[in-house]
Write a structure and sequence with these properties.
Blueprint (H helix, E strand, L loop, with lengths): L4 H10 L2 E9 L5 E6 L4 H6 L2 E3 L15 E5 L5 E2 L8 E11 L9 H16 L2 E15 L5 E5 L15 H13 L4 E6 L5 E6 L4 H21 L2 E4 L13 E8 L5 H21 L3 H6 L11 E2 L7 E2 L7 E6 L8 H17 L17 H4 L9 H9 L2 H6 L2 H8 L3
Parallel strand pairs: 1-6, 13-14
Antiparallel strand pairs: 1-2, 3-4, 4-6, 5-6, 7-8, 7-10, 7-11, 7-12, 9-10, 12-15, 14-15
Helix pairs in contact: 3-8, 4-5, 6-8, 6-10
């Protein structure tokens, strides 16, 4: 359900709400929040809630002490299993200056503008779905995460080998209480590694859900004496964690639109990599299973960077496998959309598919495909020199990730 301001005010008044969390995402994808009491909610909607912007990660030497959070009532959710004598709720919030102008580091605002400017003009309806992997590690006697996996199970194993089943169940039930629909959950390939897939929704809601999912998974793991680790490569010689982005186009036109979209993404994936894979650890994951370095696509082979499953009816879908969970979902979705829309508007030609197993391919076969940047520094350099990135992102965000251009 999407609430209005008046509906949120009424709910807080009538449903014994004791605590309100105003959440936002910093430029690097970490969720932050300020908590207010119900009496402050009218001011939050009318004027915003001030906070020290100079402490936000990514601002460098710039100082913006007068920033304000403006809650979005459509994101209102009741947090599960909180206070016994009252409810706690959360709303995602826009970051604005005191005069109402949008804050250039607000990536949720960037995605919303991308949707408004690009998607509507293209006459297409897009949906995004996400699939994120994470490891469950035990805690030491001081409560700090170890690198000891919670189990030694493998792909799609079941209990008792799979000890994460109950944790995944708790996560999924909590998400459902918050209005987020998980589609499937199972044990992934690594020891203690899990995966949960969320249902398709509009791009902004999908990014909200991806951010919320990470917080819920970490919280529930902590409540069970565990740590949920979303880092790209937490264990050497074991599968890394992916953030798989599924894109669907609902169109009465033929599947050519999807081909143009994928071609646009493939052409610009190198310049986007610093934002889709923003840590040094991200590049340790490349070259491993489901994270090959080659810029390629296939209809059915899962060893490619992009997969376009067999298309039926009017719903056309593609899956991007290179991002990892350290990516800011708003920034990732905005860039992927911009690249795809550019491919559609310019009718970019899709290169020949690689319908063979790249995991077992000979070096000469891989040599015909362009590789992703080999490390974070190379990815930053590629982004700084990209006209696409310069045109797609505010200079403040580029500088936060890549340094001065």
């Amino acid at each position: 359900m999407r609430y209005s301001v008046n509906e949120v005010m009424r709910f807080v008044r009538e449903e014994n709400v004791k605590f309100i969390h105003l959440a936002f995402c910093d430029v690097f994808g970490k969720q932050k929040s300020i908590s207010i009491m119900p009496e402050e909610l009218p001011n939050a909607f009318r004027l915003g809630i001030s906070f020290d912007g100079s402490a936000i990660a990514g601002l460098g030497d710039k100082a913006y002490p007068d920033l304000f959070l403006h809650p979005d009532p459509s994101t209102f959710v009741v947090l599960p299993c909180r206070l016994e004598n009252g409810k706690e709720v959360r709303m995602l919030s826009a970051i604005r200056f005191s005069d109402g102008r949008g804050f250039p580091w607000d990536t949720r605002l960037l995605l919303a503008k991308t949707i408004e400017d690009g998607m509507q003009s293209a006459g297409l309806r897009f949906s995004f779905g996400t699939e994120q992997e994470f490891y469950l590690f035990t805690l030491d006697e001081s409560g700090r995460p170890t690198r000891t996996p919670y189990d030694q199970a493998g792909y799609m194993d079941i209990a008792p080998d799979d000890r994460g089943e109950n944790i995944r169940r708790e996560i999924c039930l909590a998400l459902k209480q918050m209005g987020i629909q998980p589609e499937r959950a199972y044990h992934a390939e690594g020891p203690g590694q899990n995966v949960i897939k969320l249902r398709f929704s509009d791009p902004l809601t999908a990014a909200d859900n991806a951010l919320t999912f990470r917080a819920v998974a970490r919280s529930i793991a902590q409540c069970n004496g565990l740590a949920a680790d979303f880092s790209p490569m937490p264990l050497e010689n074991y599968p890394g964690n992916g953030f798989y982005i599924n894109i669907s186009i609902a169109s009465t036109q033929n599947s050519q639109k999807m081909c143009y979209l994928v071609a646009g993404i493939l052409e610009r994936i190198g310049s986007m990599t610093a934002f889709l894979n923003p840590t040094e650890n991200s590049y340790t994951r490349f070259g491993q299973a489901k994270a090959l370095k080659s810029v390629s696509w296939s209809n059915e082979n899962c060893s490619q960077m992009i997969r376009i499953p067999t298309i039926t009816g009017t719903n056309h879908r593609t899956e991007l496998l290179s991002p990892d969970p350290t990516a800011n979902p708003y920034l990732a979705f905005a860039l992927v959309l911009k690249a795809g829309l550019h491919g559609i508007s310019h009718t970019n030609e899709l290169p020949m598919g690689a319908d063979f197993n790249l995991y077992k391919a000979m070096p000469q076969a891989l040599a015909q495909y362009r590789p992703l940047p080999e490390n974070l520094q190379a990815a930053k350099e590629t982004a700084r020199n990209s006209q696409f990135i310069q045109e797609s992102l505010p200079k403040e965000i580029i500088e936060s990730y890549c340094g001065l251009c």
